[in-house]
Each structure stands twice: as C-alpha cells, then as structure tokens.
UniProtKB/TrEMBL annotation:
Domain HD residues, every copy: 50-160
Name the record gives this protein: HD superfamily phosphohydrolase
Keywords: Hydrolase
InterPro entries the record matches: dGTPase-like (IPR050135), HD/PDEase_dom (IPR003607), HD_assoc_2 (IPR045509), HD_domain (IPR006674)
Length: 407
C-alpha cells in the first residue's frame, strides 16, 4: 500500500492494481497535464494536474465501492478504470480535444489503444483484468461504468471540489461524502437514495455556477482559441503528427509552438499572457441560428471573411462559437416516494439553471488589441449579428456586446 497526502481528500491509500499502475508512464504523464488548461491564466493557483485528480477519482471510487458492497475483480476493475480514466487526455486537457478528434477520431475517453499494450496492459493482465473491459469502463459502458463516467460519477464529484479548491472560487463546493454514501443501483441505473433531491441539485448548482466564472471565463476562452489556432498551424506546417500531439504534455506542446517559426508568435503570447482581446461578445439571441451549429470549416471560412473585411492578417481573427448549452446532470436519477425519477422531472431548480446557462452563453470574436475595433466592426457585418442593445459596464468601450457577463 502507498499513502499519498492530497489537498482535497487528505490521505489517499493506493493499493492493489492501482498501486502497480501508479508509476506507469501513462499515469505519471498526467503530472504534466493541467486539469484546467488555460484557466491558470485567470486563476494563478489553478495549477493542479490530471494526476492528482485521477488519484481523487480513485479515492472516491474506492469509497463508493465500499458503500455499495462491491468486492473482488469487479471492484478492482473499477479502481483501475478510475485511476486510468484520464490517460487519453492530450495536452491542456479539453482545450484541444476537438482538434485531436478531427485528426484521430478519438476523444479522451476512447483509450482501448492506450490500455491494450505496453506496461499498463501487462499490469492489468497480471491482476486478472482484461484491458478492453477496463477501457470500456473508462468510456462509461456497463453498470459499474456509471461510477466512472455518468451523470453521478465520481469524476465529476472530484473535479468540482478540486477546481473550486485550487481556484479559490467557492461555488464548486459540494458534499461529495454524502453523494458517495447515497449512491445506489436500481435496475442497472446508478441513482441517489430516497431524500436526496437537494443533494442532486447541489451537484447541478455547483456545475452551473462554476461555468461562467471558471470553465467559460472569457480570458480562458481567448487563450483556448489561441492555443487551438497555434496547434492547427503546428500540425499543418511541421512534422508533428496528430498521434504525437495526442501523447504530448503541456510543456511539450508549448515548447513545440515556441520552437517553430510558423507558430512561435502563439507560443510566445501564451507563455507571457499577451492575449488577444474581445472584439465581439454576443448573447445567443443576437446570433443567427445557422451560425450556432456551423461546422469547423465554416467557422474558418468566416474568420477569413472577417479578416478580409477588416483588412487584417487572417491569423489575427478568432471566431469562438461554443456548443449549445446543455446540462447532462439534469438526467441524474433520484428515488422519490419509492420510485426512480429523473432530476429534471422532479426539481423546479433545473429549469431556472437551464435558463441561466442559456443567458450566460456568449459568441466571441478575438483579435490583437490594436485591430480589435476594426475586427469587431467587420465581424458584426460578416456574421449578421443583431447588436442593438446598449453596451454595458463590464465590457470596455469599443467591444460589440449585448449583455454583461454576470447578472
């Protein structure tokens, strides 16, 4: 057994298959992948990594297994999946995941190729575990896979508490101890026991409050857009392959960006927080419907059109169209009056949070400070944005915006 001091869960005891996996290269690599990617440019203390998060997920999975009375090989499979659930992440976590998927066809939870050979596969096999079944569990497949990846998974419980702790933002604080104790399996579904509607709501509320102030903070989004642009150029202009990119860590990618002429500007700007500024910051009602679901190629074409209209270098325009807002936690299941019900059917809070999430959605157009106004004017014309509302106090003069960021 190995005992590790953790900033969130105090002491974590690692044993069995997890102890043997701990020092594998696949797990140790996660020490060099930040949990929150570019959010550290907003909250300097948010330097926690996927490694410590994986330990936290393993710890909470262990506690859940104890409360559920699950033992033996089934339990070991869950423990292995919990510790390994993030080994598929590329550098900067989710920030360039869509880019990697476009080139490799793999998201971070599709890890059969990473677990099926090498040291990790040998360790799993030595413990009587099938690597493919562990990989299936990482993707949330099967009944017990819901513990690792699902609406009530221990992954979510750890990252909310950990992200709140390291950013200093209080909104992500949750009672993960109660959440773990109240988990039950009913007809193959992972649910919360009777009397826990508010417990489920707390998880939903924490996620909803963390989104605008942490996960979707405009500075983090600008840096994310610049990181994606630089990485796209890295793949197009150098010998870096998508598969190699997928296995890089944060430092590898930043060094690669700074070391190549085609991407050096992005690398320097990200290294020293010399970021683009908001030229447009528009709420959903101001954006044409066809733009909300525009594919990547269309977005790039629109960036080129905006640049041409503004007479600036195409690399100086980034169009950021987030996915439509969704809250997967609303489908969490709780027992009410002896019956299993979906949280969205039971909680009046859900509709309010869904409306708030839609209100917080923003389309962004980013550009260097010296051309921001020209780019903003051009973007409004090219994109057909309806920006009739007055500007507001939290957005600097000259930025085309419709509502303030926090209401």
């Amino acid at each position: 057994m190995k005992t590790i001091k953790d900033s969130v869960h105090d002491y974590i005891e690692v044993e069995g298959v997890a102890r043997d996996l701990l020092d594998s290269a696949a797990v140790q690599r996660l020490r060099h992948v930040k949990q929150l990617g570019t959010v550290t440019l907003v909250y300097p203390s948010a330097n926690h990594t996927r490694f410590e998060h994986s330990l936290g997920v393993y710890h909470l999975a262990n506690r859940a297994l104890d409360h559920l009375g699950i033992e033996g090989q089934q339990a070991e499979r869950v423990r292995a999946a919990a510790l390994l659930h993030d080994v598929g992440h590329g550098p900067y976590s989710h920030n360039i995941e869509e880019l990697i998927h476009r080139h490799t066809g793999k998201y971070h939870d599709e890890v059969h190729d990473l677990l099926g050979s090498g040291r990790v596969a040998r360790i799993l096999t030595e413990h009587g575990l099938n690597p493919d079944r562990v990989a299936d569990m990482v993707a949330g497949e099967g009944e017990l896979g819901q513990l690792v990846s699902g609406e009530l998974d221990v992954d979510r419980m750890d990252y909310l508490a950990r992200d709140a702790h390291h950013t200093g933002v209080p909104y992500g604080t949750i009672d993960h101890g109660r959440l773990v104790r109240e988990l039950r399996f009913v007809d193959g579904d992972l649910v919360l026991a009777e009397g826990n509607v508010q417990t489920a709501e707390s998880l939903l509320l924490a996620r909803a409050l963390m989104n605008p102030v942490v996960y979707a903070h405009h500075v983090a989004r600008i840096a994310k857009g610049m990181l994606r642009r630089g990485t796209e150029r890295l793949l197009a202009a150098t010998d870096v392959t998508p598969d190699r990119l997928r296995r890089m860590d944060d430092k590898d990618l930043l060094v690669a960006l700074r070391s190549n002429d085609a991407t050096a500007t992005y690398g320097e700007r990200l290294s020293y927080r010399d970021l683009y500024k908001r030229a447009v910051w528009a709420e959903m009602d101001a954006v044409p419907d066809e733009l909300l679901d525009a594919p990547h190629g269309t977005v790039r074409d629109l960036e080129d059109e905006i640049a041409a209209d503004a007479a600036v270098d195409p690399e100086h325009v980034i169009l950021d169209v987030p996915d439509r807002p969704e809250m997967t936690e609303t489908s969490s299941r709780v027992i009410v009056g002896g019956q299993v019900r979906r949280l969205e059917d039971q909680s009046t809070l859900v509709q309010a949070l869904q409306a708030a999430q839609r209100d917080q959605w923003r389309l962004g157009v980013y550009a260097p400070a010296d051309v921001r106004e020209r780019v903003g004017d051009a973007a409004v014309r090219v994109l057909g944005l309806d920006l009739e509302e007055p500007l507001v106090s939290d957005v600097r003069p000259g930025i085309h915006a419709t509502l303030d960021e926090f209401q």
